[in-house]
Request: fold
Amino acid sequence: MEPRSAAALGTEFPYTLATLCYIEVAEDGTVTHGKDAGTYERARDGKCRLFAVWPGEWASHLFVIDDLDEYARAHGLMHDPERTGLADHEHAVQWELDPSEKKPMGSYITIRVKLDCGCNIRDLDAFAKQMRAQQGWDIATSSGWGGSSGSGTYMRARRKSLTS
Ligand SMILES: [Zn+2]
Reply:
């Protein structure tokens, strides 16, 4: 069976689907399943070839991961403005306590964030990473979040990490 091209599907390829099984074929032919922190670098450096099995309802398809930049962007190894809605710059951030917050002095509080720089938060993990680096914010990425560009995005964050 000839593998299909993941690159041909662009962002439609489900790089982060939980049931997707990655297969790494090393230079010496050794086959390992799954991926780890070093997979991207090994593939990029030509030390292995990366494939993935995408299980379907009736049949599974074998893909060759032939666009490693897309793989890296999907896994957050490389910043992706398109997926995340976030430019790679210092954001102009405004925040206020969310009206739903009943314990404004708690260690974690729900805030509402607005970005004046034109970005739209579509990926909280990516935003949290940027805000940690830019202003030291500690955003709880496992908590609920959401909102709209009009009313702002609500999220939980450690109160004492927030800059005014
Ligand atoms: Zn921005």
Remarks:
- The radius of gyration is 20 Å.
- The pocket of zinc ion is lined by residues 86-87, 89, 91, 115, 117, 119 (CB under 6 Å).
